[in-house]
Amino acid sequence: MSNVRDFGAMGDGIYDDSEAIQHAIDVAGGLIEFPRGDYRITKPILVELSKVGRVAFRGEGGTAKLIMAGEGPAIHFLGTHDRSADPTSFQPKIWERERLPMVSEFEITGTHPLADGIRFEGVMQPTLSGVLIRKIRHAVHVVKRARNLMISNCHFYQNTGIGVFLDHCNLHQSIISGNHISYCRLGGIRIQGGEIRNLQITGNDIEYNNNKAINVPDADGEATAEIYIDAEDGSIREGTICSNTIQATYSPNGANIRFIGSGTKGNHRVGMWTISGNLIGSQAINIHLTSALGFAISGNYIYSGHERNIVIEASRSIVLGDNTLGHNPDYGDKELSTGIRFVDCEDININGLILQDAMAGQNTVANSVASKKVALLELVRSKRVSMTGCQILEGTPSGVLIEDCSNVLMSGCTVLDNRQPPLMKNAILWKLSKGSWKGLGNLVQGCRLAVGTLIPEGVVHGHNVIE
Fold first, then answer.
1. Burial code of 130-154, b = ≥16 C-beta within 10 A, e = fewer?
2. pLDDT tens-place string over residues 41-100
3. With contact defined as beta carbons under 8 Å apart, do 355 and 340 qualify?
4. Which end of the chain, N or C, is less packed with Cβ atoms under 10 Å?
5. Which of 26-30, 32-36, 79-83, 428-432 is predicted least confidently?
6. Which of the 8 DSSP states describes residue 97?
């Protein structure tokens, strides 16, 4: 154990403790202990694991604070692991000198606009526990290659950049669990490019990660999300988003969860993900998928999407089942209209949804955007869609839109309007573009549909109840 005070650190928040802390690491290594105090530094503390051996930082029960007054990460862990997590691939020196760098019971803040919290590079089994990082740029920044990242029981709060930023890195086997990640301007958890596999995001509270918390002038419209995953120049697969609270305040171009597979139709660079058991609400779009392949979305409560609850574009093999999409009753009549929109999608199963529109038929929350939807559930230029056992209620102006779609099966669904007077014009609105080859092989059977439904020519139907 090495106490930084023994190497000359003052911990008074004024003196520059950079050299003393760096000296403690380079000379002694091991467990670097920070007694209660405010340790001001002006340059990154570099932990070059191949040289100094196994290192951990501990802040005496959370009473120690590291103040980064310079540019760059307060702590930079640099390793040499350049292979997979397969035990047979390890060089002996990784286990001997570099594995499991840890930071625990510690606070990091910044006074420089380009100060970051902790950077991991080339590291095996980096672990954070009980760490508070606030008022810096990126709280945790992972670059290049890393393996077996663990972040648990941490607080990343009010940062000008991103809470957890996986930045064009090659990272497999990661768990982000039990954290509070909020008020980070450019996203709570953000993945930009790289190769990501086996990522679990579970049991976190991820909230309010947009510009409103920081209030940078003219930046409200910059796209952000609580969980933002952009694979346009990478490949991101095999992950779960489970049992989280994911909420926000509205921001233009904002989403609670956003996946971007590619700007090119059919180039699916994100997939093999599950989104289940979460509370997701209060953004422009709650869940937004673009060019995704292989998603299972189930067991969530999804509410208050200013534009839509769910938008899925140019995607394939999507299961959307057993979710409840509605409102927050605490706000009474101050509610938002809801909705789901699929565009240019293939091989979609929609089952067991309860989807209810606003009782007022429009957005009534102050400063909300006007509703642009045609129907509560919209299928546009999509094919091989199966929709069963759904309740679609109080749609405005229509319940379901089916436009230029083929091989749509709708069975055992209820599409009704219980408002008095009713506001829904059509339970199902069919549209077919002039000269379109689509619109073939559609079947509606065994549904309860509101009055006003017209089944067009060419659609097989039977045993429906029109009310």
1. bbbbbbbbbbbbbbbbbbbbbbbeb
2. 999 999 999 999 999 999 989 999 999 999 999 999 999 887 776 777 778 888 888 789
3. yes
4. N
5. 79-83
6. I
**Phi and psi, residue 31, nearest 5°:** -80, 115
Of 212, 191, 211, residue with least CA distance to 201: 191
Pairing of the two strands 254-260 and 279-290: parallel
Q: What are the DSSP calls for 282-311, one per residue? A: EEEEEEEEESEEEEEEES-EEEEEEEEEEE
Q: How confident is the model at residue 341 (pLDDT cuts 50, 70, 90)?
A: very high
pLDDT at 457 over 80: no
What is the rounded distance in angstroms from the CA atom of residue 127 to the CA atom of residue 149?
A: 6
Distance CA 395, CA 418 (A): 10
Q: CB within 8 A of 27, min separation 6: which ones?
A: 7
Strand segments (E) across 323-373? 324-326, 340-343, 346-351, 354-356
Going by C-alpha positions, the residue among 8, 45, 226 that lies closest to residue 119 is 45
Q: What is the radius of gyration, based on Cα positions, of the chain?
A: 26
Phi and psi angles of residue 118, each rounded to the nearest 5 degrees, phi first? -125, 130
How far apart, in Å, are the Cα atoms of 104 and each of 72, 107, 163, 174?
20, 9, 17, 18
Burial of 440 (0-12, 13-18, 19+ CB in 10 A): middle
Report d(CA 375, CA 400) in Å as an integer: 5
Q: What are phi and psi of 96, to 5 degrees?
A: -75, -35
Amino acid at 136: I
- Which residue from 165, 122, 173 is spatially nearest to 146, judged by alpha carbons? 122
Torsion sign (Cα): 136, 164, 85, 126: positive
Beta bridge partners of 107: 65, 132
Q: Which two tokens stand for residue 16?
A: 């520059």
Burial of 86 (0-12, 13-18, 19+ CB in 10 A): exposed
> Would you put residue 61 in left (φ > 0), alpha (ψ -120 to 50) or beta?
left
Outline where DSSP puts E strands in 323-420.
324-326, 340-343, 346-351, 354-356, 375-380, 383-388, 391-393, 398-403, 406-411, 414-416
Confidence of residue 461 (pLDDT cuts 50, 70, 90): low
Q: Is the separation of the CB atoms in 319 and 307 below 8 Å? A: no
Q: What are phi and psi of 392, to 5 degrees?
A: -120, 110
- pTM check: above 0.90: yes
* Distance in angstroms (rounded) separating the CA atoms of residues 244 and 280: 8
pLDDT in tens, 285-306: 999 999 999 999 999 999 999 8
